[in-house]
Amino acid sequence: MFFAERNSYVKKVLQFESMDYALxxxxxxxxxxxxxxxxxxxxxxxxxxxxxxxxxxxxxxxDMPDSLGxxxxxxxxxxxxxxxxxxxxxxxxxxxIVFLYKKxxxxxxxxxxEDINRVLKDELAEYRLIDGKIIPITNKCEIETIExxxxxxxxxxxxxxxxxxxxxxxxxxxDCRNSIKESISALEALCVSIAGTGGxxxxxxxxxxxKKNGKxxxxxxxxxxxxxxxxWTSDADGIRHYLKEDxxxxxxxxxxxxxxxxxxxxxxxxxxxKAGIDTY
Length: 280
Description:
Blueprint: H1 3-6, H2 21-36, H3 41-54, H4 68-80, H5 87-103, H6 109-122, E1 128-130, E2 133-135, H7 140-152, H8 155-169, H9 176-195, H10 203-213, H11 220-233, H12 242-245, H13 251-274
Antiparallel strand pairs: 1-2
Helix pairs in contact: 2-4, 2-6, 5-6, 7-8, 7-13, 8-9, 8-13, 9-10, 9-13, 10-11
């Protein structure tokens, strides 16, 4: 912090569903240095054509810029125009760059993600870039918990966690209910896999089998807690209807379930590993 901020002459505020000039400018700087300064002209033009068609969905016609410098000016105007480029469109654009870099196996992807997250943290944005999605999370432990679930979980668990992230990241309005469903489905899928008995298709039944089998050491109260968590999202038949009837389900609920189910999956995978059960 410099003098003005340190002495409260200039106060920084948390940025949620908003983006001030400093944050816009610094995200532009990250994009500028990564995109225009680290690639040759042919690569830049190829990537711009992809973005022009797939992200901006604009026609290839005479209105396109004529030179690399003009393209740079066009993108600069896109970032700076608060009236026409909404805060969530900037975040969508960042996601598009991550998608493009992954598609091209770019060596600059890791640095781009790290630089974006550094700026988001510095400017008190209540979002982070995880698994190619901008999601509303600030706590470092929460981020590491989710990333661990994405990294070590088996394919179906990782898929559900990734889907839960996508639902939270929907802009401008997160799909909280469906994110919660995906989070609890990750836990359910893992336990059903560990139970390994035909016909077991719900978390409650899978936990009963795991408890009876006794190989994976889970305390009775812990199992009861998992069933209670599952009960919040389900009726007796495992049909998730309660969430549709609850008007108070919000972003805080979706984030809680995403982080909690990620942590629970990580924990149970370790327990299963000690019992000689490979889950990934």
